[in-house]
Design goal:
- The protein is mainly alpha-helical.
- It has 34 helices and seven strands.
- Strands 2-3-4-1-5 form a five-stranded parallel beta sheet, sandwiched between helices. The protein has a two-stranded antiparallel ribbon with strand order 6-7.
- Strand 6 and strand 7 (677-682) form a beta hairpin.
- The radius of gyration is 43 Å and the shape is elongated.
């Protein structure tokens, strides 16, 4: 990402705001100036409005061969104190005089140096005298009346004066050193122009300047950055030296700040004081609103395009976002500040992979970060309120007011509209502009900030534990047409503990899945389900289990008609190596189920699907894999329901084994929650459907406690507890 240094432009060719004609008009006035005194032009405009850019464009125009104007650029902000400021002011003009197209340019520069040195000596001498007199009076006062009324008054006064000189010397030393330097300058200048009075030197300077074929332009920028005393001193300099011909001053400032500073030396009449000095007062042309917004849109689009081109839906939303963010931009500097922060946010949130947030939401949020930092901070702390439906009107009002009181009253309506754009599910106000209806699944899949699973990404630049990165999910979607790659990805997601997040995002994105992706994705889900399923308890499905069921239902509902959905399910059942999810899927298609995905299956169609599942259960059982399955109890229940004789025959040969009896009891349990905690109980009614209860009891009774794990001991204990309760 490239950052905008927020520096003024240097060439007319870089002008984006249409100020070329304004610059040319001022330049023409300067070139044609022939007055007997200096021309003082004041160019005012608010901070960030482009004054320095206008200055640079004017320098380019005036330095052209046909105009050839000597330009002195003086930035007083670079100098620490008034003494340095005054010295730099005179020196810059002296240099310009030395370079001006005149036969006596060097002599004119020497006269200027002499003139300025005499003025500065007066200031320094005054300063030294002021230090001395102030300290002396203080010492005399401190000596007390007693010494003054003694007969040795003269000796006492002399002692005070000597003491005063010693004390004052330290404070005056710096001034005296400066005075020595100025004195040398004065001698050098005198040698060049002989001994003349200050008025005579000034008169000769006027004559020299009148002979110039082109005026000298003195540009003074960043005046409003100075302290109030420095601003006052600078305008005194300009006023004192404002009666020379062919000297044109261009003063760049924010007028309100300057007038307020001048109030301190004019008894509150800074406005009139300024008007007496500045002869031509100009205001920077207001930026055409359309032009500023064109710059904003162009630069924002450029940044977003570096991530990824906007699709048709994003284009529509971006246009809407522009209407919400544009009222907050008043100057080009504001645009540059925003672009720099947005570029930084994009680089942080993107890293080396895909962007993990919605681009348009990030644009809106960045506007709040740049212009309303306190509101941005409050948003970052209000996740659970802003991303959930709110019925508490008092809480809603409190949150809204806490946000809006952080901005000017004139900005509140536009801020409110922007907040509603970012969080359309929050009831901000009935008067805000109408927005498209909020859809939670869209907010999740499109990474909008309004969904709680996406919110933190915008503020910490990272992914929550258990969540999947945008880049990984995008790559996963691209490979959904390949069963093997999809299966491997799902296994990897399960190992990283992000599978639930994947299921959530897939559920929100199934409407966008290509038709050719449905079959391989469904088969991959069937394949992987057995490997990622945690220990299963009847009536207590895990989050992964629910995700598998909901997602497979969503995929089966994607085809346009029942026949296509049934064909998709049949193909997936035939090809999968998995067991659990195919069995669940078929069980949910029975008439008594309320979770049918295909729906309205005939008895013959349903029977064919059950046969495929029974064959798979049987194969797993005789290979020894069924006993190891975390949903062992559920699977044998379905086996007993669809092929009772097969199931009972197999169970009769297996129930005497410790592993089978314990697995049956551990996977056919119920869980209940009370004030005292979580409680588990064995479902004897379910066990009785697939095995002989007495045979199970006999197997578990024969087990030695010290040969069982803690979990196995607990399972056996729960079985006998349930058995005893059933007898009572």
């Amino acid at each position: 990402m490239k950052f905008n240094p927020d520096r003024p432009i240097c060439k007319l060719g870089d002008d984006l705001l249409g100020r070329k004609s304004f610059v040319n008009a001022i330049a023409a006035s300067i070139v044609g100036w022939k007055g007997s005194e200096s021309l003082i032009i004041g160019l005012s405009g608010p901070w960030g409005s482009g004054k320095s850019s206008v200055k640079n464009m004017m320098k380019e125009v005036l330095s052209s061969a046909e105009k050839n104007i000597q330009v002195v650029e003086f930035n007083p902000w670079q100098w620490a104190g008034q003494d340095q400021l005054g010295e730099a002011f005179f020196r810059e003009i002296e240099i310009a005089l030395g370079k001006s197209p005149s036969a006596d340019n060097k002599k004119s520069a020497a006269k200027w140096r002499l003139y300025s040195a005499r003025l500065r000596i007066g200031v320094v001498v005054t300063g030294v005298a002021s230090h001395f007199v102030t300290a002396l009076l203080s010492l005399i006062s401190g000596a007390g009346l007693i010494s003054l009324i003694t007969e040795h008054f003269a000796w006492a006064l002399g002692a005070v004066i000597v003491g005063g000189l010693v004390l004052v010397a330290r404070k005056a030393l710096a001034k005296l050193a400066e005075l020595a330097v100025l004195w040398m300058e004065l001698k050098e200048a005198n040698a060049a122009v002989y001994q003349l009075s200050t008025d005579e030197i000034k008169s000769q300077l006027r004559e020299d300047l009148e002979r110039l074929t082109r005026p000298i332009l003195v540009i003074i920028d960043d005046i409003d950055r100075l302290t109030a005393p420095q601003i006052c001193f600078l305008f005194q300099l300009v006023k004192t030296n404002g009666d020379f011909p062919n000297l044109v001053y261009l003063l760049l400032m924010e007028r309100d700040i300057v007038e307020e500073s001048l109030n301190s030396v004019t008894s509150g009449n800074g406005k009139n004081y300024l008007e007496k000095i500045v002869q031509v007062s100009l205001h920077l042309p207001v930026i055409a609103r359309g032009t500023l917004l064109d710059v904003l849109e162009k630069e924002t689009r450029g940044l977003l395009a570096a991530i990824d081109a906007l699709n048709e839906e994003e284009e529509s939303r971006f246009s809407m976002a522009l209407s919400y963010i544009s009222p907050h931009f008043k100057t080009l500097r504001g645009v540059h500040r925003f672009m720099n922060v947005l570029a930084f946010e994009l680089s942080i949130l993107r890293g080396d992979s895909a962007l993990s947030v919605d681009k348009i939401d990030l644009v809106g949020l960045t506007v709040l970060k740049v212009f309303y930092e306190k509101i941005y901070y409050r948003i970052s702390k209000a996740k659970h309120i802003l991303t959930r439906e709110q019925d508490d009107k008092e809480e809603v009002g409190r949150i809204r007011d806490s946000m809006l009181t952080q901005c000017a009253e004139d900005d509140r309506e536009t801020v409110l509209n922007l907040l509603a754009f970012l969080f359309p599910n929050f009831p901000w106000d009935e008067t805000i502009r109408a927005l498209p209806p909020y859809r939670e699944e869209d907010a999740l899949s499109k990474l909008h900030i309004s969904h709680p699973k996406n919110f933190d990404r915008y503020f910490v630049g990272s992914i929550e534990p258990g969540d999947i990165s945008s880049a990984d999910f995008r790559d996963f979607l691209k490979n959904c047409g390949d069963r093997k790659k999809t299966y491997e990805s799902l296994k990897d997601f399960n190992e990283k503990n992000v599978l639930v997040s994947v299921f959530e995002r897939l559920l929100a994105s199934t409407s966008k899945l290509e038709g050719t992706h449905l079959e391989p994705l469904l088969i991959a889900l069937f394949d992987v389900a057995d490997e990622c399923l945690p220990e299963w308890q009847s009536g207590n499905r895990s989050a992964i289990d629910r995700g598998l069921i909901f997602l497979s239902s969503s995929i089966l509902q994607k085809p346009p008609d029942k026949e296509s959905s049934l064909n998709l399910l049949s193909k997936a059942l035939e090809q999968t190596t998995g067991l659990y999810l195919p069995v669940v899927r078929v069980a949910l298609e029975t008439p008594e189920s309320k979770r049918q995905a295909v729906g309205a299956l005939t008895e013959q169609e349903l029977s064919a699907l059950k046969t495929v599942c029974v064959d798979k259960i049987k194969a797993w059982a005789f290979s020894g894999r069924l006993i190891q399955h975390p949903a062992f109890g559920y699977l044998v229940l379905r086996w007993e329901e669809w092929a009772p004789s097969q199931c009972s025959d197999w169970m009769a040969t297996q129930i005497g084994a410790k592993e089978v009896a314990l697995k049956l009891c551990s996977t056919l349990q119920d869980r209940s929650i009370s004030s005292s905690g979580v409680h588990y109980s064995v479902r004897l009614d379910h066990i009785a459907k697939v095995a002989d209860i007495h045979a199970v009891a006999k197997t578990l009774s024969a087990l030695k406690t010290d040969e069982l794990t803690a979990e196995e001991q607990q399972t056996s204990k729960l079985f006998f507890l349930a058995l005893n309760q059933s007898k009572s």
